[in-house]
Structures are given as C-alpha cells and as structure tokens.
Amino acid sequence: MFNEKKLLSLDEAQQIAKMFLLAQHYxxxxxxxxxxxxxxGTTRVYQLRGKxxxxxxxxxxxxxxxxxxxxxHFRIExxxxxxxxIDYEVT
Length: 91
Known about the structure:
Elements lengths: L9 H15 L4 E12 L2 E11 L7 H4 L6 E9 L5 E6 L1
Antiparallel strand pairs: 1-2, 2-3, 3-4
C-alpha cells in the first residue's frame, strides 16, 4: 500500500512548515502544538497545528497593542511523500 522508506519524518515536516511560514511571516515565532499523519486519497499527509506569534508592524504598536493580539493559530498540511505544502491556514 504505502512505501514507508520514502515517508517524510515528523522533524522534516516541521522544518518544511517552519521555513514556509517564516518566509510568509518574517521574524515570527512558531510553536507546534499538535500533529497527525493522515491518509488523504492515495497519499499520506502531515497535518501540523500550532501558534504563530507575529512581529508588530510598527514600533509604536508594541506599546499600544497587547502582545496576545499578535498570536494566531495555524494549520498546515504537507505531503509526506512529495514534501510539498498542500494547504495552510492562519487564523
């Protein structure tokens, strides 16, 4: 059914997710809280979830806006065989 030898490891999946999200949201901090390896059709997909803390856009907002306002949740799906981002969402 699935060839386990080519399967992406969890650490590799987290590294791909980290590089992708930090490229989208410069100087942010990531905290992975949950992961699942799921079957999606004929492939396997890592679904990673966590929190992303984004850097404030202006120096003044650091004093006015509470720190928790810059925290968001993210979900990202990575194809475990092809090492590609399938879907992601930041809320």
